[in-house]
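User: I've been trying to design a sequence by hand for this structure and keep getting stuck. Would you show me what you'd pick, starting by listing the structure so we're on the same page?

Assistant: Good idea, let's start from the same input. This is the structure you sent:
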């Protein structure tokens, strides 16, 4: 494996981010590890076909997921939808060759891209609010109570003491976010990605944390009374004690 190129792709954040006016927005969950991918594709008319003029992604996955998605989207740029829909892991590996034990990453990236195009052709499109819109709303009203923030991308954001009570944060991307002292009471955090998030002294009472990822999260002083969890709720071994305060569903 070319480690220098691998590091360069990650450092440059190639094709990473959101496209606010994308015609195609799709969500894919890697069933193997539970990581979430969002695919954004900007289209342009080209005679009777449409070509992909821009492509971006967000992911909760590791650096191998990042490189696979970055290369997959690089491969389909300026291709027609029909051409892009035929993408395979072998196509992705023409741009970057993965080690034998990591071949599943380009396979998942290809599947995510194929699903995005299939969703578009069948009329499906996930509704999402971009990070810039959410941060503007937060600045204007000072809270995000009862807001529909499904799939929102707030990775690495400073959200200390923000009131999210009653908000829908299902499948939200909140990894590395600073949520110290935040009010998440009654919030829907089902499937949310909170890895490495700072939840110190946060109020999560009665929240829904089923299938949420909390690996590496700081849960010191967090109120998890009656919060819902299931077999998919992931925490560090040192934080297993939190389940005694929660409700299994």
């Amino acid at each position: 494996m070319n480690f220098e190129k691998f590091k360069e792709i990650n450092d440059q954040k190639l094709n990473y981010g959101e496209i606010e006016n994308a015609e195609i927005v799709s969500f894919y969950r890697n069933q193997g590890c539970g990581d979430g991918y969002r695919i954004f594709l900007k289209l342009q008319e080209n005679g009777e076909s449409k070509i992909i003029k821009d492509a971006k992604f967000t992911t909760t996955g590791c650096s191998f997921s990042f490189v696979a998605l970055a290369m997959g989207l690089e491969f389909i740029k300026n291709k027609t939808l029909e051409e892009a829909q035929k993408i395979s892991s072998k196509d992705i590996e023409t741009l970057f060759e993965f080690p034998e034990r990591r071949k599943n990453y380009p396979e998942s990236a290809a599947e995510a891209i194929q699903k995005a195009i299939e969703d578009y052709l069948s009329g499906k499109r996930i509704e999402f609010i971009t990070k810039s819109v959410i941060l503007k709303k937060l600045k204007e009203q000072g809270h995000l109570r009862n807001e529909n923030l499904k799939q929102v991308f707030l990775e690495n954001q400073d959200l200390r003491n923000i009131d999210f009570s009653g908000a829908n944060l299902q499948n939200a991307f909140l990894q590395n976010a600073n949520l110290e002292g935040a009010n998440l009471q009654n919030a829907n955090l089902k499937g949310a990605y909170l890895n490495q998030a700072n939840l110190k002294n946060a109020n999560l009472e009665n929240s829904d944390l089923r299938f949420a990822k909390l690996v590496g999260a700081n849960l010191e002083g967090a109120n998890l009374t009656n919060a819902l969890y299931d077999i998919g709720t992931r925490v560090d071994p040192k934080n297993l004690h939190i389940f005694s305060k929660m409700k299994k569903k």
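That's my pick for every position. To get oriented when you compare it with your attempt: The mean pLDDT is 93. The chain has two domains: 3-121, 128-249.
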